[in-house]
C-alpha cells in the first residue's frame, strides 16, 4: 500500500494487534517509533503532507506497560524448602555458588552471573557494580553480609577464572548463562510458575516489609529500594546529601545483615 494511502486507523489497528493479540507491549512501542521515523522522512521529502503517526497518542493506543510480577515464596516453610534445595544442589560449582549467594544479595540475574573479581572489595565488605551493568545506569554499591563474605572467600580458594566469580563450565572466559540458573531451579523441582531467579528480589521486599509492619523494625521503604537498586534510590541519595549510594551504606548494611540472618534462621529452624 502506498504510504499516502495509509490512515491512522490502519496504524492503530496494527499497534493494537501487536499489543493485544500477540501480547508484545515493547514491540508495539518500537513499531510506533519506527513508523514515526518513516513518516517523518516521507514528510521531509514531500511524499506525504503530514505525519499522521505523530498524532497517535501512544498512551491511549498502547498504554502503559503492565508491571511484571515474578513468582516467589514468602511463607517461611516455602523459603526454607528452597534454601535447603539450593544447599543440596549438586550441579557445577559456579552454579552452586551463585545460587547460594543470590538469596542473600537478591541482585538481578545479569548482575550475579556477570560478577567480576574486580568489583569485590572484601576488606570493606562491599560489591561495587559499575553503571554500565546496572539497569538504572548508575553505579551501585552493595554492602555484603558476613554470610556472603564467607562464600566469596570460599570461591577465592577455588577460583575458576581470573575475571568472573561464576564462569561457565564450558568456557571459563564467559559467565554462566541465565538458562543455567533457571535450569538449576527446575532441577530442584520448581516450575516456572513457582519460582525464578528474579523471585529472590520479590522475596526480600515482601519479607522485609511484612516483618517491619508486624514487628516494628525501623527499616524504611527508602532503604529497601536502595538495596534493590531501583530508580527511586535517586530520591534517597538526596536525603543523604551524597552523589551516590555510599552515604546510606550503614542502614543498607544493617538491613541486608538482618535479612541474611533471617534466612539462616528460617533454613535452620
Regions with little confidence, pLDDT below 50 for 5+ residues = 237-243
Supply the CATH superfamily name of the largest domain: Intergrase catalytic core
Distance between the termini: 68 Å
Number of DSSP E strands? 3
The average pLDDT value, as a whole number, equals 88
CATH topology of the largest domain: hpI Integrase, Chain A
- Most strands sheet: 3 strands, antiparallel
Architecture of the largest domain, CATH level 2? Orthogonal Bundle
What's the alpha carbon Rg, rounded to whole Å?
23 Å
What is the CATH first-level class name of the largest domain? Mainly Alpha
Strand order of the largest sheet: 1-2-3
Question: What count of domains describes the coordinates?
Answer: 2
What's the helical proportion of residues?
40-55%
Oligomer: single chain
Spell out the helices and strands N to C. HHHHHHEEEHHHHHH
Specify the overall morphology: elongated
Residues in β-strands, percent: under 5%
Total of helices: 12
**Structural class by secondary-structure content:** mainly alpha
